[in-house]
């Protein structure tokens, strides 16, 4: 009788375990993330995925590329995604249109510009002065790459409207192809395209916009205020996983980071990925924590103002939620 009782007890315990396992599976929270582009510039995000940091927090992160700030924001506002990874300037644009449900930045991923100035010809001793009189193939008007590009030019006493021919009517996805086809003397490119062009002899990297622009919340995770309010605990878990990844990237070599994120970039050689990661790490492009501070926000507004794209100054506390990042970092 005693033996039979033990068997029943074991079965009961097993059923309880299976029940608990089933419950844990059911309560796993899905977070749909839309990234503005797919780039090595976002290495910590891919590390958080590959190392299982999101899973450790009980999250199932569904990542898709939404290709462009306008499309990313449209997807967020229409509830096609829960979280957007995009330039912080987009939250200001939405606010300026009188949004009832503001888009709020809650975790920073990159803290300077990720583009490079690529020249068609090899230049041994480059100076920004050499851009005067040239044709410059820039990025989309109103986007962070273009605004930072113009800001840096002005810092070097170059008027982008008067001192050179500025082309900025080409779609983001086609800028590199336009340059490769012969348009422009200089072009502003993201990695790994800039390094690949250099390897193929299509262009030569002569300067970094990130090194010149100073700290700025170039790319941040953001969500509608209502979503953050209703899912604060989930977003804290999300940010905690991101912070783990940011620390991992900071503490490991470019080679180790490259190997970790390589599956995300199957068409790019491991050597190129490592080169790009090393370049971004050396200029502190990857934020070391998710906290977006006020000085960086002010720099963002200054850059937008210089470009003539700032509708109006927006209070830092209105569009930046620091509570989630601070809690995630403390824990």
TrEMBL record:
- Chief subcellular location: periplasm
Supply the alphabetized keyword list: Signal
Q: Where is the signal peptide?
A: 1-24
Residues in a coiled coil are none
| Location of the protein in the cell | Periplasm
Give the family this protein belongs to, as stated in its UniProt record: Belongs to the bacterial solute-binding protein SsuA/TauA family.
Protein name listed in UniProt: NitT/TauT family transport system substrate-binding protein
């Amino acid at each position: 009788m005693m033996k039979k009782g033990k068997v029943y007890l074991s079965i009961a315990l097993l059923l309880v375990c299976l029940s608990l396992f089933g419950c844990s599976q059911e309560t796993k929270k899905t977070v749909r993330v839309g990234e503005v582009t797919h780039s090595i510039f976002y290495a910590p995000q891919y590390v958080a995925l590959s190392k299982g940091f999101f899973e450790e927090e009980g999250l199932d992160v569904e990542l898709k590329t939404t290709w462009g700030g306008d499309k990313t924001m449209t997807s967020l506002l229409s509830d096609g995604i829960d979280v957007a990874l995009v330039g912080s300037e987009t939250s200001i644009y939405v606010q300026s249109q009188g949004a009832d449900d503001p888009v709020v930045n809650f975790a920073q991923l990159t803290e300077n510009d990720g583009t490079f100035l690529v020249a068609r010809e090899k230049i041994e001793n480059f100076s920004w002065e050499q851009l005067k009189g040239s044709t410059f193939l820039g990025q989309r008007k109103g986007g962070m790459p273009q605004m930072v590009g113009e800001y840096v030019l002005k810092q070097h006493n170059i008027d982008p409207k008067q001192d050179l021919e500025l082309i900025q009517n080409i779609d983001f996805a086609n800028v590199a192809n336009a340059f490769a086809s012969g348009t422009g003397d200089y072009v502003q490119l993201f990695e790994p395209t800039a390094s690949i062009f250099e390897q193929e002899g299509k262009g030569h990297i002569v300067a970094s916009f990130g090194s010149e622009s100073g700290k700025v919340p170039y790319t941040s995770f953001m969500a509608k205020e209502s979503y953050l309010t209703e899912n604060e605990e989930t977003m804290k878990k999300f940010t905690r996983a991101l912070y783990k990844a940011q620390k991992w990237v900071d503490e490991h070599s470019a080679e180790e980071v490259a190997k970790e994120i390589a599956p995300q970039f199957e068409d790019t050689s491991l050597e190129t990925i490592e080169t790009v990661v090393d370049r971004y790490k050396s200029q502190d492009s990857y934020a070391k924590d998710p906290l977006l501070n006020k000085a960086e926000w002010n720099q963002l507004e200054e850059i937008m103002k210089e470009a003539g794209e700032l509708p109006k100054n927006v209070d830092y506390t209105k569009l930046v939620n620091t509570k989630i990042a601070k809690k995630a970092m403390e824990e």
